[in-house]
Amino acid sequence: MIVGTQKPIEEIWNMVKDFKKVLVFGCNTCVAICHAGGEKEAETIASLIKMKASQEGKTMVVNHLGVMRHCEPEYFEPVMDEVKKYDLVLSTACGVGVNFLSDRTGTIPVYPGINTSFYGAVEAPGVFKELCAGCGDCILHMTGGICPVARCAKTLMNGPCGGTNKGKCEVSNEIDCAWYLIVERMKKLGTLEKLSAVQPPRNWSTSRDGGPRRISLEHIREYEEKEEAKTTK
Amino acid sequence: MATQDVCILEPYRPYGADIKETRPYSPCRAACPAHTDVQAYVGLIAQGKYAEAFEVITSVNPIASVCSMICHHPCEQSCRRCGVDEPLAVRHLKRFAIEKSKDYRRAKRKLVQKTKGKSIGIIGSGPSGLTAARDLADLGYSVTLYEKHPVLGGMLAAAIPPYRLPREVLKEDIDDVISKGVEVKTNFEIGKDAKLDDLAKKHDAVLVAIGLSLSRSLNIPGVEGPGVLLAIPYLEDVAFGRKPALGKKVLVIGGGNVAMDVARSARRLGVQHVEMVCLENEQEIPAWKWEVDEAVEEAIKINYRWGPKAVKRENGKVLGLEVTKVLSVFDANKRFAPTFDNNVTTLLEADTIIITIGQMSNMAFLKESSVKIDERGRVEWNPATQMSSAKNVFVAGEVVTGPGSAIAAVANGRRAALAMHLYIQGETIEGRLPVQEKEKIAEMPSEVVEKISKQPRMKIKHLAPEVRVKTMENFEMGYSEAEALEEAGRCRGCGGGAVVDQKKCMACLTCLRVCPYGAPVVEAYSTIRPEYCQACGLCAPECPAEAISMVSYDVREIRNTMPAIVGTIDPKRKEPVIAAFVCMHHASALGLDLPKNVRAVPVHCTSRIDILDMLKAFEVGADGVAVVRCGSGTCKYRDIEPRVNARVKRVQDLLGMLKLESGRLEILSAASTNGGNPYASVCAEFSDRLKRIGLRAGK
């Protein structure tokens, strides 16, 4: 899932202070699970904005709303009439949601209420960990299921580097060295010798380097188009 | 406490009443023949809302005062606390709420506008007749109650001894019914003063609710003659203050609850030596266990497993009852089929014998009417419509259902009232009357039982046996307010807990991780199993999608009412305005006596305080917010503290972002202290600390 964290109220305030009607719009999927931007957190942020407005002597209407997902139009379309009553939408969805919604609100700006952080897992209740970077060319079968793209600070394909330190990364003692983990895991799996092969430079065009990505599933699209054609006949 | 002088004009509906109807009932409610929403009114009592509790009770039961004294409380027998320690003392709580609502109910009595222009005659003013009268009057019909006795109440007035049911208690219920504009014709005996068929012509519909007013007798030698009495005439004498002719040694034949009334009232009439004889053994005796125990306390000897054979007399004077040893009472199919050992007999000495082996209806007037009686002497009726064989003559109560409890007769009276209403409105009755059996939530799983702290039932005090047998006065001391509030707090709120909005839930597992009782099951969405849920409310404020609500209270209520609770903030105030969250159960029990600058925010438990609730208090201008914990050992839930601590810490962090001092939000403890009001003192201390921080400036 996508993990995010709330922006500090000071930053949010600077975004919203010049608007009269603000809607804090929550997304009840990934960012709700990480307690950053679900309906509950949208209401919390709305409350803080109201208090800040009162401290600053500003009059402002601040409401909140939440829908299941901001990344599929069917979820937010039913509330678009409501959304359009505001001067500003402060979305607490991930960046995907902010982008997606702002394409559909016309003259109403959509600002981010949270920082979208990473793709992660719930390591323990309240603890979220980055495990994938969405590079578009998965090599986890070669690294014992531990991703060096996401989990190595240098994104090394042939690690570890000289900065590995008793299983920790030179960036911080808090960070595990991904390549240390990979080696230990491959030992356990009995496939350590696979690591002796040198990996050639990666083709990063499947990742961000190839520009924004779009996937179109012909079998799904085609079906929908045919259905549409049938009904319009 | 606050609502005693307020008259609620709209029917009172507790929060969640509608949701509850669609869910399995709590076992107490399912067990009550009238399906009284027990936990709703117990919850209201726990909050000190007695008039509201009264409304919940009387919405389905117009003889609530009566039931508060005499009900056999099947709710208690089915209480899920039985598996933990002891059942909730529901009847005593009902009595408490009703006694506390006396002024309220009197003020509320008002004539109901008659709107239907149709008239209804009800024959018999016992539980079912009174109930039907009340319900039909409420619906706008002109109701006439016909009662053969000089007072209303049927057997309640004419047979139940006053030591069990004080007549002033009965009067409250009857006055409520009469106040609805019900016309009363007492000393009016159908068959003598009017014929049933004539009444059926006079009224648009007639209800026969005559109960069982005749005692059955025994066909044994010597039964005829002085010294042998029948239960009902004897109990009528007791009820109306006439002295029945009793000797020095009274023997009561029978082991049912009426037999207990007979024997125990004989003790109260001054008879020192009272014995009972019944076919059954200690386990089989049909009387309630508490009746047996109390009778034994009152020095009544019960002779078990003897069957009456003959009344022995000398010169016409009763010497005693010859009895035969009983071998068994029930056959293999549990049907009543007593067998005797005729070789073993004995004489139970007595100069007075009272036969209490059952009752039947006085159907003389029916025999000369168009209502058909079957070959076994029973009224022909259709339970699906409550109708007799005669066109507009309905039947209700024990005349058709057979002997049962007052509350069962109430339930049947309600059913009949609805049937009559449908009939008069020209609507189909069949399939429209409520079914008696209701789906109820399952037994509490053993792993949940283990997690529930034991709290003994608040004992009710009785007058000592040697004192109570000297008078016909009621011998049960009702609860004090403190006792009632404590007992009400024992209710587990079965079925009143968390419900998940499937449209909002994204199966994030938060509730599963939070719940101390393992109630949620998360698949495509979370389902909170009602048999596990203890309604503590810990999960709802944790749900990131706001998908969880509670059946028994509105999770958004605090946020919605906070502006009204905190009120307008005076910019010239000297004292800090504090919003103090207090556990309503604990606080009502202790009595809240807070300083003027402290606004109490009653909560079901601190478990339900949401981060948003605390923020709301600051949003509406409070200088400080206190979460007043009731102190360890008094909470009926578990694992509440760490969650609440974490929420408070989060709010303090958020306040920090607004440059508000974390000291403006504190957790206080109101652990019971000896003397003084702990709420007042901890809040006053907090107030001093806040003054040092300073009042919040508004722009």
Polypeptide structure, described:
The complex is a heterodimer of chains A (233) and B (699). Chain A has nine helices and seven strands. Chain A is α/β, with parallel strands linked by helices and 233 residues long. Chain A folds into two domains: 2-118, Rossmann fold, CATH 3.40.50.2300; 140-199, no CATH class. Chain A has a four-stranded parallel beta sheet, sandwiched between helices. Chain A has a three-stranded antiparallel beta sheet with strand order 1-6-7. Chain B is of the alpha/beta class and 699 residues long. In chain B, 33% of the residues lie in helices and 18% in strands. The longest helix of chain B is centred in the middle third of the chain and has 19 residues, at 406-424. Chain A binds chain B through residues 8-10, 28-29, 32-33, 35, 38-41, 43-44, 47-48, 50-52, 54-57, 66, 68, 122, 125, and chain B through 503-504, 506, 508-510, 513, 543-547, 611-612, 615-616, 618-619, 654, 657-659, 698-699.
| Structure annotation, total helices of chain A | 9
| Gyration radius over CA of chain A | 22 Å
- Average predicted local confidence, pLDDT of chain A: 94
CATH class of the largest domain in chain A: Alpha Beta
Largest sheet properties of chain A: 4 strands, parallel
Average pLDDT rating of chain B: 92
Q: Describe the oligomeric state of these chains in a short phrase.
A: heterodimer
Number of domains of chain B: 4
| Helix count from the secondary structure assignment of chain B | 27
Helix vs. strand class of chain B: alpha/beta
Q: SS-based structural class of chain A?
A: alpha/beta
Could you give a short account of the major beta sheet of chain B? 5 strands, parallel
Largest interface: A-B, 27 and 24 residues
Q: Percent helix among the residues of chain B?
A: 25-40%
What CATH architecture of the largest domain in chain A do you see?
3-Layer(aba) Sandwich
